[in-house]
Each structure stands twice: as C-alpha cells, then as structure tokens.
Specification:
Penicillin binding protein transpeptidase fold; alpha+beta; Beta-lactamase; elongated; six-stranded antiparallel beta sheet; 761 residues; 22 helices; five-stranded mixed beta sheet; OB fold (Dihydrolipoamide Acetyltransferase, E2P); 15% strand
C-alpha cells in the first residue's frame, strides 16, 4: 500500500517529464528547421564607416551611423578577453551555448521575483540575439535564442564566436565593438588599454547608457569595480593588479577630439567628395581614404593657427564670461549638468565659477575643482573688479574658459571670436601637406581655406607686377610713389583717393623697392599703365576667377575676392619657376579589404602643359619676393634663419583681412586672419603682425632639417648695374633684366645669385 502510494506521484512526475520532453522535442522539430542560417556569421560583413587618414596612416576622421573597427581575435589583448568573460560569461569556453548553472540561477530569481524574466544569456546567446533577434523579453524569443545558440556553437569555434561578439556588440557613443569603443572613450587602440580601462569597457554590454563613463562616470566606476572583483575571483589578475586598477585614474575623452591628428576640415572635404561618388555606400562599405596630409605638418599648422588667434585675442583684452547660471546646488552632478552645454575646445576647457575675488578664482572643470591665482588671473583681471557691470564680471555661476600650462598652472582664457586658416602645399606636385580651416571644427564647420572669399589686399600685388613684366617693366623701372586721385569711371564707384598704409610717400622709386615696401601708389600706377582689362585676363593664368576681380584700379590693391586655396595654387607659379600646380587632397581610396579604388595622378611641376608664365618672369618675381622677406614688410621671417624664403604680406582697407602668402621652393603656405562677418581687426593688425607669425610658426617645423634651395637663373636673364633713383638706395647695385629689356647704357655683368641650386621634385 505504502509503495503504491509513493509510486503514483513518481509516475506522475515521470509522465510530466516525458510529456515535457516530448513537447520540447516537438517544438524543437518545428522550430529548428525555421532558424535562420548562420551564413551571416561565417561571412561577417558589418557596416563599416568611412575612415580618413593622413598620408602616413594616422586617422583624422570617421563617418557612419555606427563606429566600428573589426579586429581579429588574435589582436585582442588577453586582459580584455578576461574582463569580458568575467563580466559576461565566465564558463564561455566550457558550455555548449547555454550555461545551465546560470539558467537555474536565473530561473530561481525569476520565480522569487514574481515571474520577472532575468538574463542568463551567454556570449553565444548574445551573438544570436544581436545578429538575428529582437531584444524583447518573451519566452518565445528566449527559446529561439537558446536554439540559435546551439546552432551557432555547432557551426563555429569558440574563438570565432568571441570574435563576432567583440566586433558586433553595441557599447554606447555610437560605438559597435570593443575596438571602436576604445577609441571613442579613451582615444587609443585596444592593444594599449590598461586593466582599469578594459574593466570599464567590459562593463558596458550590460547597459551601455547606464554605465557610459562620459555620461555616468559614477555608475561606470561602480560597474568597473564589479568587473575587477570578478576578474580577481577568477584569478585573471593578481591582488596587486586589482588594487592598482581600482585606484587608477581613467581619462575619458570629452572634447569631441576623436582622433590623434586634428584634421577635421580635411576629413569633411573628403566625406563630401566620397558622398558624391558613392552616395549609397559611403557610410557602410568601409572605404579608407588616405589624404596627402602629413601628421607633423598638420600638427604644426594646427598649433600655429590656434596660437595666432589666441595671441590676437590677448592683444585685444578679455571680453567677459561666456554665460551665467544660478548654482542652486553645491553638487558635482549640478556643475556637470551646467557644463554639458559647453564643448571643450582642445586644451581650452569650459569651467563654472564656484567663488571669485581679485586674488583667487575657484572653478569646477568636469571632474575636479581648480584654483586660479597669480599670473593666471592677469588676462581677466578687469573682470574681477567690483566696478565692472555684473554681465561682464567673473562671479559665482559664471562660465569661463581655463587653460593649463606645462607646469600644471591654470589661467583664465577665452575662445577667440576672430578666425584664421592655413594651407600648405607641396609646390612640386600639389599635395596639400597641411590644412586648418578655422579655430575648432566642432565649434564652426565653416572651412576658411576653401569657402571664405576674402579680399587679398597687398598679397595680390605680385600678380599685377608679374603682368607688368610682360609689358616691358623691369624690377628697376622707376615709378612715382606720390598721392593718386582716381576718377569714379576708373574705380567703378566714387572718387578714390587711396593712401599708402604708413601714410608716407617716397617719390620716384624702383619697382623692386615698391614691392618690398608694399607701396600702394606704385601698384596703382603700374595697373594704370598696363590696363585693367589686360591685368584681369592675365591673372586667370594663376587660377583666379576674372569675374571676382572687376577691371578697375582697385584691383591693384587686392580689392577682388580669393580663397586661401586659390592663393596657394597661384603662389606655386612663383615657387616653381612658372608652373601652375593644382593642389589636391586625396592620395588614394581603398575598400574595406584593401582593394585600390582610386589613385591620384598629379601632374608635376616641369610638365610643359602646366607652364603659365615665362620662366624669366617667375625668376624676377621670385627675386623681388625674396627681398620682401629679407628687408621688407615680411622681415620678421628672417627669424627662421633661412635665405630661401619669399612671399608677400597682405592687409586690406581698415585691417579687415590679414594675409601672408609665402614659400620656400618646395612648399607654399598661406596664412589668413579675419572675422567671419568682415570688420576691422584693430589698429596695426596687418599681415605682418596677425598672419605672418602663424606662417613662421608653421614653417619653423615644416622646414626643419630641409636644406636651402634656390631657383636656378633661366636663360634670357641678364644682370646690369643700375642707379635706383632713390637717394636712400646705394648707387650702382646689380639688377636682373630680361635680355631684351636691358637698358642700353647698362652692359651685362655676371652675378652669382646666392647658391643657385635647382629645386628637386
């Protein structure tokens, strides 16, 4: 009787078990054939963004809905693999797709929590879900997830599954995969991450938004500590390593600078080019575009442009805080919330003032309280006075910019309102070596190199002078530097009474001296003599648009419109001996598998098809432009200690635009400064003061260890002694002439032109 009483429930349980197994088998028979093919996993082709690189392989831009970098499992550091396993699936290498211990644990939790479904997803199950299923929490979806996990495990090795997971999982900040996340959060490749950083990344899959170290640093730290504890429990790291990682400071990127080289303006140019060519595939096919930029050149240009603008800004004083807020709460979260509306700009950080007086300013800069005192307050001292209006005063709640020097000392700074740009071009083949379109791409995407049409001022004079050489003028031609009054018919407007910048007039002087000193009256008289229509047609040889330079005498002073890109192309003519070389930015394009899709085929200086002016003309202009640097308006460039530099300063009326266009035979560089809405930059803000220092700072690094090179003297050029006619100039000096333009009373004489060395492509 007793045995029968026990047998009945046992039989019932067995029957239920058999029935359950039969139902499971039936479901399996129905569902398994309908599971998707795992071919998508064996032929893994994720959406890979467009990436833009320098010529020497440094990443400068990435475009796509998904940030993704596909890496092979062999390239993933062990410390990251261990962190992932500790956080997500410690028995990954031992189960067959489903971790039954984890399932039982989750089942118990589900029952104890009233049926609320909980995880127990293995890495394999997550791969199944990420590739084939939705994230809805239903029993049906979970069943398919389990079945797919079995199928994946049957078809792929463990390392293949882990590789898919590492490359596919979403980790916040638009990053898919751990390689992309490492760049997005820390700005470094996977192989360079620390144990502490690996633990942060491994903690993200569970909840990418909740544990995002940029948005939620506190919760990210809590999750990191959990992962480190699990890594220690599983003996992946030692006690000492765990302790060190727990205390390690994590530097998370917050300023929008995602790449090791600041080439955002060039990256955007490339994106637009590729979008026109591959509109349907540009953001997903994994194109890799190698530009002509060089890292060292681009770094030098970026630093020079920013320094030039900051120096200008300091010359014109502190304008006051960027904004104000009411700090009702003394809490780090409240401070960070205020600063979320203000992007950092490289080393110019946004900060909110907590307390301020004339001797000390305390401010919160994301993650820390900083103290500014002493010299750090000098620039903004006026804004700390009680006498200044509240809207200009640095006080509690003010949003300011702070800068830290090499000795970790803080100072108050500000974002410039002026703008600047620089482009540098290899004069032999047109490769753009550096291009900076403004102060900060994240603050203004307007590319001043390619989009800003500005008056070139006196930097345009060399093209008028070049035109005059074809009309029989010579560097020795004497022209009167005296006031000019021009009829409205000749200007296209009102009576024009131009002046020299310094207000001084030297009377009869040679054309060489006039260009060296940038004499406006001489340029006007030259243009009057050769004719405005002729000059308008002549300048098109250099790549300028005729319609942008109306045929009026104002053209002599650069009253037309140019872009820095155009100026770079135009000055290659003087640098190369008469060849117009087209600047280009893209070196080659390859697909995600490295197949070459396009390759630049630049035409080099020396090709007869590129010649636009007589080599003798280019030689004479080069000679005069050297004098501008040696003892003219650009004499400051002598600080570089070189004799092979040439160029021309440019300042427009009322100091609205400042330029320096210059070159060494191998490289042409153009620096510009001005306001987006044209206005006066201030007294004495000339090309030599505002733009030339940028050019010098760039060239100091670009020409380091580059030997001096000089243009060879072409056939048909002769030298003769001349008397300038200017009492300030020595009599009987040597001058260059076209042979047919040699004054009859001046017999040719030999002259060595520095060390005449032919430039080499």
């Amino acid at each position: 009787m007793g045995l029968r009483w026990l047998a009945f429930p046992a039989a019932t349980i067995a029957g239920i078990g058999i029935l359950g197994a039969a139902i499971a088998a039936f479901v399996l028979l129905l569902a398994y054939p309908n599971l998707p093919s795992i071919e998508a996993l064996t032929d893994y082709r994720p959406k890979i963004p467009l990436r833009v690189y320098t010529a020497d392989g440094y990443l400068i831009g990435e475009f796509g809905e998904e940030r993704r970098s596909v890496v092979k499992i062999e390239s993933v550091p062990d410390i990251l693999k261990h962190a992932i396993l500790a956080a997500e699936d410690e028995r990954f290498y031992h189960h067959t797709g489903v971790d039954y211990i984890g399932v039982l644990r989750a089942a118990y939790s589900n029952i104890s929590q009233g049926g609320k479904l909980q995880g127990a997803s293995t890495i394999t199950m997550q791969v199944a879900r990420n590739f084939f299923l939705s994230r809805e929490k239903t029993i049906t979806r979970k069943l398919y997830e389990v079945l797919l996990a079995f199928k994946i495990e049957a078809g792929l090795s463990k390392d293949q599954i882990l590789e898919l997971y590492i490359n596919q999982i979403f980790l916040g900040q638009r990053a898919y995969g751990f390689a992309a996340a490492s760049q997005a959060y820390f700005g470094k490749p996977l192989e360079k991450i620390s144990i502490a950083e690996a633990a942060v990344l491994a903690g993200l899959p569970k909840a990418p938004s909740a544990f995002n170290p940029v948005v939620n640093p506190t919760r990210a730290k809590q999750r990191q500590l959990y992962v480190l504890r699990r890594m220690r429990e599983l003996d992946y790291i030692t006690e000492a390593q765990a302790a060190e990682a727990q205390k390690a400071s994590i530097s998370v990127k917050r300023d929008g600078a995602d790449f090791p080289v600041r080439g955002e303006y060039v990256a955007e140019m490339v994106r637009q080019m590729l979008f026109e060519r591959y509109p349907e595939e540009v953001y997903s096919r994994g194109f890799r575009v190698y530009t002509t930029l060089r890292k060292d050149d681009q770094d030098a240009a970026y630093a020079a442009v920013r320094k030039g603008m900051l120096d200008y800004d300091r010359r014109h004083g502190y304008r006051g805080p960027e904004g104000f807020t009411d700090l009702k709460e003394d809490a780090e979260e409240a401070y960070d919330e205020v600063l979320s509306d203000y992007l950092d700009s490289d080393d110019l950080f946004a900060a909110v003032v907590l307390d301020a007086n004339a001797k000390e300013v305390r401010a919160w800069r994301r993650g820390e309280t900083i103290v500014i005192s002493g010299d750090g307050l000098k620039f903004a001292a006026s804004a700390l006075s009680d006498k200044i209006t509240p809207g200009k005063r640095i006080r509690r709640g003010a949003i300011i910019r702070v800068l830290q020097d090499d000795k970790k000392r803080w100072s108050i700074a500000q974002l410039p309102t002026v703008q600047s740009s620089l482009i540098a071009v290899n004069s032999y083949d047109g490769a753009v070596r550096a291009l900076v379109g403004g102060f900060d791409f994240n603050l203004s995407k307007y590319n001043h190199v390619t989009q800003a049409w500005r008056q070139p001022g006196s930097s345009f004079k060399p093209f008028i002078y070049s035109a005059s050489l074809e009309k029989g003028f010579t560097p020795a031609t004497i022209i009167n530097d005296s006031p000019v009054t021009v009829d409205p018919f000749l200007t296209g407007g009102q009576v024009w009474e131009p002046k020299n910048y310094d207000g001084k007039y030297d009377g009869p002087i040679s054309m060489r001296t006039a260009l060296t000193r940038s004499k406006n009256m001489v340029s006007i008289r030259i243009l009057q003599s050769i004719g405005t229509q002729y000059a308008q047609e002549y300048i098109t040889r250099f790549g300028f648009d005729a319609e942008k330079h109306p045929p009026y005498l104002t053209m002599a002073l650069g009253a037309g419109s140019v872009t820095p890109w155009q100026m770079a192309r135009a000055y290659t003519v003087f640098a190369t001996g008469g060849y117009k070389v087209e600047p280009y930015i893209v070196q080659r394009i390859v697909d995600d598998r490295g197949n070459l899709l396009a390759q630049a085929q630049p035409v080099l200086a020396g090709d007869p098809n590129l010649r636009v002016i007589d080599p003798r003309n280019a030689f004479l202009m080069d000679s005069m432009l050297h004098d501008v640097v040696r003892h003219g308006t650009a004499a400051r460039a002598n600080s570089l200690g070189r004799k092979d530099l040439a160029g021309k300063t440019g300042t427009t009326n009322d100091q609205v635009d400042a330029w320096f266009a210059g070159y060494q035979p191998g490289i042409v560089a153009i620096a510009w400064m001005g306001y987006d809405q044209p206005r006066k930059m201030g007294n004495n803000e000339t090309g030599s003061v505002a733009a030339l220092p940028i050019w010098i700072d760039y060239m100091a690094k670009a020409l380091k260890d580059v030997p001096e090179v000089f243009m060879p003297q072409p056939e048909g050029i002769v030298t003769a002694k001349i008397i300038d006619g200017n009492p300030k100039a020595p009599d009987g000096r040597l001058e260059f002439f076209y042979q047919e333009n040699l004054p009859p009373e001046s017999p040719p004489e030999p002259r060595a032109r520095d060390e005449a060395v032919a430039p080499q492509p």
